[in-house]
Specification:
This protein is of the alpha/beta class. It has two domains: 99 residues, Rossmann fold (3-Layer(aba) Sandwich), CATH 3.40.50; 250 residues, 3-Layer(aba) Sandwich (Rossmann fold), CATH 3.40.50.150. Helix content is 46%, strand content 19%. The strands form three sheets. Strands 8-7-6-11-12-14-13 form a seven-stranded mixed beta sheet, with helices on both faces. α8 links the parallel β6 and β7. The radius of gyration is 26 Å and the shape is elongated. The termini are far apart.
């Protein structure tokens, strides 16, 4: 056989119709990995997407071993990605018994889930002391509750890092009753955390405010990459819908959103003390804010306007979270935060910087 006839080694994805199999196929294209897609059920959409989809019997079918080996030889398959536990278990035994030079990628789906859970609980253990410290004492959230917040938030796009989310968990135990308001929600990462924690501590209903418009998102004080590049990368019909999908499971019944700029949203909030939307229905508010998260446009003038509009409505014992107080792309939040710390020093019980955000607890 001449060199031109040698077939490049391939990875078999089976069953490729599984969501994890589809994801592997997408990633493999990005890294130019040669893959063969196979499934026990015909999927026309998948076949169109990958070009060729081979149908194999189920692993417990007597014909499977011969069909599988023929596919391996035909395509020079050297690795197999099997995202379904039954398929992985069968292939693991078959490869060992036959002494095949095939490698199963990773561990079994069941073991992967156990390992994922163990990593999550290890993360909780690593953050436990920090959360207690931010709480000013022992935080009464259980390890399972902390794990649930981390797992939920990691699956939602956004820039709130684990340190900030850990601190958010810590402060709710000392928050008064009232509304929880967020300015600048994008697709709902931090809003979901606020909703879960507000419900856990029975603080009050949550309101998220975001215009979801390119003009409002343009941060004029920032470098071009942030000012233009990131803004233009969005298709602006997507964020409000993505936000609704991400927040609906935890928010429905005690949560709503306003597609407005911050100051206009504040006027509506003060006037109506209620918000109605197609996704979340009607939500009533107290008009007194227990936790305020300001994470909108980071231009100095806009952050200043946000604080001037909303902070008079913050409960005298409430918490302010000023996002990106430490931000490499601009100093708007820092300038506003520093002025606040100086001008209202007598009203502040304690403050700390965490996860790039400034956390401020006011005193009654």
């Amino acid at each position: 056989m001449n060199a031109s006839a040698v077939i490049e080694p391939a990875t078999l994805v089976f069953p490729a119709a599984h969501p994890d199999g589809r994801e592997y196929l997408e990633v493999s294209r990005e890294r130019d990995e040669r893959v063969v897609a196979a499934s026990s059920v015909w999927d026309a959409d998948l076949a169109a997407a990958v070009g060729t989809l081979t149908v194999l019997p189920y692993v417990d079918d007597p014909e499977f071993p011969a069909r599988f080996m023929a596919l391996v030889q035909q395509h020079n398959i050297t690795r197999v990605y099997a995202p379904v536990a039954a398929a992985y278990s069968w292939l693991e035994r078959f490869i060992a018994e036959k002494g095949l030079s095939l490698r199963l990628i990773g561990s079994s789906p069941i073991k992967r889930e156990i390992e994922r859970f163990d990593r999550l609980m290890a993360k909780v253990a690593s953050w436990r002391g920090f959360i207690d410290q931010c709480a000013g004492g022992r935080c009464d959230l259980s390890d399972i509750e902390i794990a649930a917040v981390f797992r939920m938030s990691v699956n939602i796009y956004g820039e709130s890092n684990e340190q900030k989310i850990a601190a958010m968990m810590a402060i709710f135990g000392s928050a008064p009753k009232g509304d929880v308001v967020e300015v600048g929600s994008l697709v709902g990462k931090s809003a979901s955390v606020l909703a879960l924690l507000s419900r856990r501590y029975r603080i009050g209903n949550v309101l998220a405010i975001d215009p979801w418009q390119a003009a409002a998102a343009t941060q004029h004080d920032s470098p071009e990459t942030v000012r233009v590049g990131l803004v233009n990368e969005w298709r602006w019909d997507v964020p409000p819908q993505d936000f609704a999908v991400n927040t609906y499971p935890i928010g429905y019944g005690s949560f709503n959103c306003l597609q407005q700029e911050s100051v206009r949203g504040c006027e509506i909030y003060k006037r109506d003390k209620a918000v109605e939307s197609p996704t979340f229905g009607r939500t009533e508010y107290q008009g007194r804010i227990a936790v305020m998260h300001i994470d909108g446009n980071h231009d100095y003038a806009q952050v200043k306007l946000d604080c001037e509009a909303w902070l008079p409505l913050l409960d005298k014992n409430g918490w302010l979270i000023l996002d990106d107080y430490l931000w490499v792309h601009g100093d708007g939040p820092r300038r506003v935060g520093d002025a606040l710390l100086q001008e209202r020093a007598a009203d502040i019980e304690r403050s700390f910087e965490c996860g790039k955000a400034l956390f401020v607890k006011f005193r009654g």
